[in-house]
Specification:
Low-confidence stretches: none
Number of helices: 3
Mean pLDDT: 87
Radius of gyration: 15 Å
Largest sheet: 3 strands, antiparallel
Number of strands: 3
Strand content: 15-25%
Distance between the termini: 22 Å
Oligomer: single chain
Structural class: alpha+beta
Order of helices and strands: HHEEEH
Length: about 80
């Protein structure tokens, strides 16, 4: 999905509605998430690792590094 400025604005407006969640509901998930992709587990390192990607409405899959930076108050 190509991420256009209007789509980013729509995503931000939607996300702002849920800044202070106490409970994640199906309504919120339907409003925010387009799809969840759960990949096959990998045990090659000796530990079980399983990747999960979330495709958000309006913006698609966001890089984990971006989400981590946003969570820690860092911006690009």
């Amino acid at each position: 999905m190509h991420c256009l400025p209007s789509n980013v604005d729509r995503f931000i407006r939607t996300a702002k509605k849920y800044l202070y969640l106490e409970k994640l509901t199906s309504t919120i998930l339907n409003d925010m998430v387009n799809a969840v992709y759960v990949h096959a587990p990998d045990k090659s390192s000796g530990q079980r690792v399983q990747d999960v990607e979330i495709s958000y409405n309006y913006v698609g899959i966001l890089p984990v590094s971006l989400l981590y930076d946003l969570q820690n108050g860092e911006t690009a």
